[in-house]
Design brief:
Blueprint: H1 8-18, E1 27-29, H2 31-37, E2 40-45, H3 55-64, H4 68-73, E3 75-78, H5 82-94, E4 98-102, H6 108-118, E5 122-126, H7 131-145, E6 148-149, H8 156-172, E7 179-183, H9 188-200, E8 205-211, H10 216-223, H11 246-255, E9 258-262, H12 264-278, H13 288-291, E10 304-309, H14 319-329, E11 333-341, H15 346-354, E12 360-366, E13 374-382, H16 389-398, E14 402-405, H17 410-416
Parallel strand pairs: 2-10, 3-4, 3-6, 4-5, 7-8, 7-10, 8-9
Antiparallel strand pairs: 1-2, 11-13, 11-14, 12-13
């Protein structure tokens, strides 16, 4: 049996199907990024859908294809958030009962939005710590209740629905597209784009981007077999899966030009820059494709480049963590164990004589528990420039305040901070 590869006629049919619920999203030039990279950088604003991500495309296309018996029995899905909202919206629009499993760590904003879009047609169940945990629970429930499972990425109808993004891009510009950067979680969108551009614009290079802490597609491609990662960083929840789809892996390993990862902290800085400088709100997965441009700055000079901004379902309560990760990545936030002499005036001495003029204490934990000469405190210090770190440490050591530097001790860092 030949391996599955989406057909253009099926993708065009999907475009007709989803037209009733998914508006054509803008393809906008970013003046700032175009100037920064000396290229024509275009942002495909999939964050502007009613459900604020491209996932409505695949979910609606799949659910619309079900038989009458399947729709009567209802559907089940598992999702970290965006697929859940797409399925919820489709269930509500088509009048189909749905049960949606989400990881217990899913941002509250995504859970509430899923309930909003689904209305009385959808039940949300929080289960497990990762997408894979939720998926296992959803599949067991689905089998027991004889319902239809709506996979978030490893399904032909899902892939064909996501592929409509590529059709729109080619219809929205007369310029040849040299590069398309796409975030990869399970690989549904990347697979769909590979199909469209291979058929209609074969010179276009499709580059997949994953979080550094969840490199499931990159690792699988390098090993030549679809593997499951034991541990992943769940921070970029929209693109953090332990195992990509079999269908999507087979397509991506053959047709992606490149598959790369970017650090979570760098993604956080992109999120802050997009908000502060462009008034664009993106979730972490939505910023992956812009974050990676630094790695291709020489290759993309003078080229037409599309970055898929995949979603904007970001919980405002995560802002502090996003800022923290950005500062840590930029080497502007540093944590120390400081040994304070147990005498009056020690803290004043530290602030006046040890800290630099632009250094700022942002975290301080101390309690006097013994009569020892020195007592430890955990202190977080934010710098204006990374170069200020070495002189700061030198002053600490010369004045006998330095205890330990814990940024590069992940186990200790997680325990204390």
């Amino acid at each position: 049996m030949d391996a599955y590869f989406p057909k253009i006629e099926d993708i065009r049919k999907a475009a007709e199907t989803i037209r009733q619920v998914a508006d054509i999203t803008p393809l906008m030039q970013s003046i700032r990024y175009s100037k920064a990279y000396d290229a024509n950088i275009l942002l495909k604003r999939e964050d502007l859908h009613r459900v604020r991500s491209y996932k409505i495309r695949g979910a609606f296309n799949k659910i619309s294809s079900l038989s009458k018996k399947e729709t009567m029995n209802g559907v089940v899905c598992a999702s970290a958030g965006n697929h859940a909202q797409g399925v919820a919206f489709a269930c509500n629009h088509l009048g189909i009962k749905g049960t949606i499993y989400m990881p217990s760590v899913t941002p509250k904003q995504k859970v509430e939005q899923t309930k909003l879009f689904g209305g009385d047609w959808v039940t949300v169940v929080l289960e497990g710590d990762t997408f894979d945990d939720s998926s296992d629970a959803a599949k067991k429930f689905c089998a027991a209740e004889k319902k239809t499972y709506i996979h978030p990425f490893d399904d032909p109808k899902i892939i064909e629905g996501q592929a409509t993004v590529g059709l729109e891009i080619l219809e929205q510009t007369k310029q040849p597209i040299d590069y398309v950067f796409v975030a990869v979680g399970g690989g549904g969108l990347a697979s769909g784009l590979c199909a469209v551009f291979k058929s209609l614009s074969p010179q276009t290079k499709i580059i997949g981007v994953e979080p550094e802490g969840a490199p499931s597609m990159k690792t699988s491609i390098e090993k030549g077999v679809n593997i499951e990662l034991e541990h992943i960083d769940k921070f970029i929840d929209g693109a953090a899966v332990k195992r990509v789809g079999n269908l999507t892996f087979n397509i991506c390993k053959e047709y992606l030009y490149d598959m790369v990862t970017v650090p979570e902290g760098k993604v956080c800085q992109t999120i802050l820059d997009l908000y502060n400088r462009d008034a664009i709100v993106v979730e972490p997965a939505g910023a992956l494709t812009i974050t990676v441009l630094d790695d291709y700055k020489e290759e993309i000079k003078g080229k037409n480049v599309v970055c898929i901004v995949s979603g904007s379902n970001n919980d405002i309560t995560r802002t502090a963590e996003i800022k923290e990760r950005a500062l840590l990545y930029g080497k502007l936030k540093h944590y120390f164990i400081i040994r304070f002499p147990q005498r009056p005036g020690a803290l004043k001495e530290f602030v006046v004589d040890i800290l630099g003029p632009t250094d700022d204490i942002t975290h301080f934990e101390y309690s006097k528990k013994s009569s020892r000469e020195n007592a430890p405190a955990v202190v977080g210090i934010e710098l204006k420039n990374p170069e200020d770190l070495a002189p700061l440490v030198k002053r600490m050591k010369e004045n006998n305040f330095f205890g330990d530097y814990i940024n590069d001790k992940p186990d200790l860092f997680q325990y204390l901070i």
